[in-house]
Amino acid sequence: MANPSILILAGDGIGPEVMAEVKKIIGWYDAKRGITFDVSEDLVGGCAYDKHGTPLHDDTMAKAQEVDAVLLGAVGGPQYDNLDFSVKPERGLLRLRKEMDLFSNLRPAQCFDALADFSSLKREVVAGLDIVIVRELTSGVYFGEPRGIFTEGNERVGINTQRYTESEIARVARSAFELARRRSNKVCSMEKANVMESGILWRQVVQEIHDKEYPDVELSHMYADAGAMQLCRWPKQFDVIVTDNLFGDLLSDAAAMLTGSLGMLPSASLGAPMANGRPKALYEPVHGSAPDIAGQGKANPIACILSFAMALRYSFDLGDEATRLEQAVEKVLADGVRTADLMGPEGGTPVSTSAMGNAVVAALNASL
Ligand code: IPM
Ligand code: MG
After folding, report:
1. Which of 94, 194, 343, 367 has its CB surrounded by the most CB atoms within 10 Å?
2. Can you list the domains of the chain with their CATH numbers?
3. Could you tell me how far CA 96 lies from the centroid of its own chain?
4. What's the confidence (pLDDT) of residue 197?
5. pTM above 0.85, yes or no
6. Is 249 known to be catalytic?
7. If you count DSSP H runs as helices and E runs as strands, how many of each does the chain have, helices first?
8. Cβ(189)–Cβ(159) under 8 Å?
9. Does the C-beta of 168 come closer than 6 Å to ligand 1?
10. What is the pLDDT, as a whole number, of residue 257?
11. CB environment 315-331: b (16+ within 10 A), e (fewer)
């Protein structure tokens, strides 16, 4: 049987640096566990624009459609700020999401005990936190038509459209309920049904799918603004949160900060099952390209490493190996190894990106 295949799109800024550490982990699985991936690499974002004049070449898009999983680093940088909207680095990422139809974006926010004092919230509020935001990723205001900047009379008007079909809501709701069944069996759905028709439909459809297919799961509904407030007040009341594309973007950044550092959080974007039964999938850290620290060996590779752990679990059916990798990360943090973003109140000497990757490899060795 062919080896499982991975396409690495390291992208811009700190993307290549954090991805270099994931490659060490991939090498470790090959050498020490006999788990061999066919890895290919390509460009996305600003670096793709520099080479091809487009943030995602058609050939790269075609490759992404064929592999078992895509691992993405980060895209963007200030040198691309003035590019035409249609070729901005972010468009490369959005094209991947849309054309691979990755409608279900899992964004876990987990607070490692060793970092509970790093959050801007009190330890008791965040310690032990383990929630997942399921963000709809291929529709809503990110993609709705009409959109654009038009002229009306003597002024310009900027238009975006929030649009959701019933089936788009239903499929992401199902993925949240399925996930909840493997966790604490609890889903909170967030929208703005008090002001938006798309929110009213969202609430109705989530409730219908629940009543027909998942009556065993505990379901609640919350307005997204109140949800943001509750996430800061007492985040442990949640287990799985399901929400639309834009609210999910905002809420997942807020949830990320609860855990102490944006440099810690992985994500999985999943689509419909492929012929082998596994979902089409792209894995990426929640953080961005951090151009201010790029190229300095300061970036925290953990979010990218944990994204690979999610790939092991969701694309390769290697849940035990995913847990091994997550525990290796936990051990490294418990041992006090810290990149610059994890310098808490007590200070200390930060380690480099590559030293953090090496520490995780050492912890993997110790796990054997
Ligand atoms: C994210 C990012 C993206 C988004 C950007 C880079 C297009 O913020 O993945 O959360 O808005 O979805
Ligand atoms: Mg975002």
Report:
1. 94
2. 1-109+265-368 (3.40.718.10), 130-257 (3.40.718.10)
3. 14
4. 98
5. yes
6. yes
7. 12, 12
8. no
9. no
10. 82
11. bbebeebbebbbebbeb
Res. 230: pLDDT tops 70: yes
Rounded Cα distance, 44 and 63, in Å: 12
Query: Measuring from atom 11 of ligand 1, which residue has the nearest CA?
Result: 249
- Catalytic status, residue 84: no
- Closest ligand to the CA of 55: 1
Quick one: which of 201, 212, 69, 185 has its CA closest to 136? 201
Assess whether pLDDT exceeds 80 at residue 224: yes
| Burial (Cβ within 10 Å: 0-12, 13-18, ≥19) of residue 223 | middle
**Distance (Å, whole) CA 188 – CA 220:** 5
Whether ligand 1 lies within 6 angstroms of the CB of 90 is answered as yes
Q: What is the pLDDT of residues 176-188, one digit of tens each?
A: 999 999 999 999 9
CA distances from 124 to 6, 115, 241, 342 (A): 39, 12, 21, 19
Which residue among 29, 49, 142, 164 is the active-site one?
142
Percent of the chain with pLDDT over 90: 89
Please name which ligand lies nearest the alpha carbon of 288: 1
